[in-house]
Amino acid sequence: MPDTVKIGMVGAGAIAQLAHLPALSRLRGAELVALCDNDGPKASALADRLTIPYVFTDLEDMLEMDELDAVILTTPNHLHEPHVLSALRAGVHVLCERPLSLTSNGVERILAAAEKADRKIVVGTNHRFRSDVQQLSRFLQGGELGKLLGMRSGQYHLRTQREGWRMRKAEAGGGAFLEHGYPMLDLALWLANFPPAVRVTAHMDRQKNPGAVEDSMVVYLECAAGVSFVFDVSWCYVGEEDRWWFEVLSSRGSARLAPLRVVKDLNGRPTNVSPSGASARESVFLQSYRAELAHFVSVVRDESPYDPPRDQVEVMRIVEAIYKSAEQGREIVF
């Protein structure tokens, strides 16, 4: 692999403009050489501003570039699987925003295709790369807080007029939970070392019109060894500001994120043992994407070990059970 990984960006929407493109512009060992979006004028304007040499409106045309080493996919959810498969057939490495596919079978197809093509596929699980999450993970992996009991998390977004592909089930795959709950589910399972799922119950609020997605959802997931998770999400919150929370409950302590605070039982007293300097100088949002992209480039250059994202099969299997529970109004046992 050359010293500089030449990357093509596919999709020039909000997440690309707010996270990926700013981070790539300052990333060592990588060069953004192409931008692809079906909105040609928007792609051209971005390319001119960021000095990106090539602009495309069709992915297949971009994949014909001989110098392309990797692509980053930030397209609508239903296009992730076909776009990943096209990129793998073209012989390039892939970083794909979550979800990797809208089905667990689709994730397995991608893993098989990546193995056949001898190329690397990385999923955009940026929360795992947050500096506060990395510190929390060290507490949990070291057993400092005792036995893990569970995690409680949620995200409320203020009610706004929403439109576009995220409001259409066939293209998005789901609504508030897939958008905001999926990354929390992935983070919780990763921090807990992916305990086997036992049962799940979910309730959602959704409009009656065909093809609508849920505006809110509450999920209770029980895993092996009595570990439980609760996820509470809404993008129609009537309040004063957006809310986000993530808390860990253990037998000898607790922790929460944003900002990181860790409390541990020391001699019978709850004691704040939060790491000094836990508050990051830059936002955890930008820091997490910068670290995620640096990891991807390092993996492509064979500087960091590569683990195929097989855990995404389990994440999507649980997501499928969550929506089944919400649709049918009953507990789903794995």
Question: What do you see in this structure?
Answer:
- This protein has about 325 residues and is of the alpha/beta class.
- The protein folds into 2 domains: about 5-125, Rossmann fold, CATH 3.40.50.720; about 145-250 and about 315-334, Dihydrodipicolinate Reductase, domain 2 (2-Layer Sandwich).
- Helix content is about 35%, strand content about 30%.
- It has helices spanning about 15-25, 40-50, 60, 75-90, 105-115, 130-140, 170, 175-190, 285-300, 310-330, and strands spanning about 5-10, 30-35, 55, 70-75, 95, 120-125, 150-160, 195-205, 215-225, 230-235, 245-250, 255, 260-265, 270, 330-334.
- The strands form 2 sheets. It has a 9-stranded mixed sheet with strand order 14-13-12-11-7-10-9-8-15, covered by helices on one side. The chain has a 6-stranded parallel sheet with strand order 3-2-1-4-5-6, sandwiched between helices.
- The radius of gyration is 20 Å and the shape is globular.
